[in-house]
Specification:
243 residues, alpha/beta, Rossmann fold, four-stranded antiparallel β-sheet, globular, binds adenosine-5'-triphosphate
Length: 243
């Protein structure tokens, strides 16, 4: 935990690709055991920000701390479960082989490894598909397997980039239940989303537009501040769809 008790602390973070500024002067704090959502139109910089917060990429300016440690820091990956937008899976291997690969990477051994693989595959309702090759999985199944991998080593921080894209509503509901249970046990979750009912479930939301963080608050406070009735209307308002 950092000196001020935050799990993620971004201070005046900026990111440029060549001459193009993608993120500008972002300061935000993610608190212990909350679910923090990043909401913004396509291309607003959510994935880029997530990559800086997990230490996968480096900021051009400003600093990021996770659990008080200055990022990027390779060792921190053990404390972060990251689910990228494009699935990082070995498609010619089975789901089990993928899970075993990542478990080994995280130093998980013996019976715990076996039990944990079973548990995470139950969370994403893929326990019957454990031995299937990933190239025979549907897009939604691959997303679910990626989520299972992010959960595998029980990291205290989960960073999920559009975790429920391509996942049907019923399963999405049960995944949310699991994420809530993880919050209760102390896990902090940062996610990007486009799905409004999902954004509404976050404890707090950060609204991003054109690489700038426009507002951070609870979904209901953001809706109220925008003078709107729903988070969807507030999203359009903050997203610049309306002046
Ligand atoms: N490696 C890169 N080089 C150059 N430009 C990049 C690079 N990565 C991202 N960008 C640009 O940064 C901007 C933000 O992209 P980013 O993927 O972070 O947006 P996003 O909000 O996650 O979008 P989406 O919701 O569609 O995934 C885009 O204009 C994108 O083209």
């Amino acid at each position: 935990m950092s000196h001020d008790g935050s799990v993620i602390q971004a201070t005046h973070v900026g990111k440029r690709f060549g001459k193009k500024t993608v993120l500008e002067n972002i300061s935000l704090e993610v608190r212990p055991a909350e679910t923090f959502g990043l909401l913004g139109p396509s291309g607003s910089g959510k994935t880029t920000l997530v990559k800086l917060l997990t230490g996968i990429d480096t900021a051009t300016s400003g600093e990021v701390r996770v659990f008080g440690t200055l990022m990027p820091k390779l060792g921190m990956l053990r404390r972060i479960g990251y689910m990228a937008q494009s699935d990082a899976l070995y498609t010619e291997l089975s789901a089990l082989e993928n899970l075993e690969f990542f478990a080994a990477l995280y130093g998980m051994k013996g019976p715990r490894r076996k039990i944990r693989i079973q548990e995470v595959m139950e969370v994403v309702a893929l326990e019957e598909e454990l031995h299937k090759r990933v190239d025979q999985y549907s897009g939604g199944m691959k997303r679910r397997l990626s989520l299972a991998i992010a959960l595998l080593h029980e990291p205290p921080l989960l960073v999920l980039d559009e975790p429920t894209v391509g996942i049907d509503p019923l399963l999405r509901q049960s995944i949310w239940k699991e994420l809530r249970a993880l919050n209760t046990k102390g896990t902090t979750i940062l996610m990007t989303t486009h799905v409004m009912d999902e954004a509404e479930k976050c404890d707090r939301l950060g609204m991003i537009r054109d690489g700038a963080l426009l507002a951070v608050d609870t979904p209901s406070a953001l809706t109220l501040q925008a003078g709107k009735k729903t988070i969807e209307e507030a999203f359009i308002y903050y997203g610049g769809g309306e002046s």
